[in-house]
Amino acid sequence: DFLFEEEKYDLALVALNKALLLRPFDSQYYEMMGDIYHKKKEKDKALQYYRISKKLEGKGGNDWFRSRNN
Fold first, then answer.
1. What crossing angle do the helices spanning 43-58 and 27-39 adopt, rounded to 10°?
2. Buried b (16+ CB within 10 A) or exposed e, 18-52
3. Mean pLDDT of 14-41
4. Which has the closest alpha carbon to 27: 2, 49, 5, 4?
5. Rounded to two decimals, what is the model's pTM?
6. How many CB atoms lie within 10 A of CB 9?
7. Residue 64 contacts residue 25 (beta carbons within 8 Å)
8. CA dist., res. 42 & res. 26, Å (int)
9. Mean pLDDT of the chain
10. What pLDDT shows up at residue 9?
11. Alpha-carbon radius of gyration of the chain
12. Which end of the chain is more exposed for a tag (fewer CB within 10 A), N or C?
């Protein structure tokens, strides 16, 4: 969140990609990536990540990940 708030979008994307290696089914990370691409005026990429987030959210992606890693 800090990098996003400081408008350091490229660094935020790097951090999120690393986070996704640890939690690949976390819909919030994909939503944040969508937000970043939206701010960068890359609407197609933003939509792509928002769709992934919604798909994972709808399937309980975060719950699925947590249940496998407790």
1. 160
2. eeeeeeebbbebbbbbbbbbeeeeeeeebeebbeb
3. 94
4. 49
5. 0.77
6. 17
7. yes
8. 22
9. 84
10. 92
11. 12
12. C
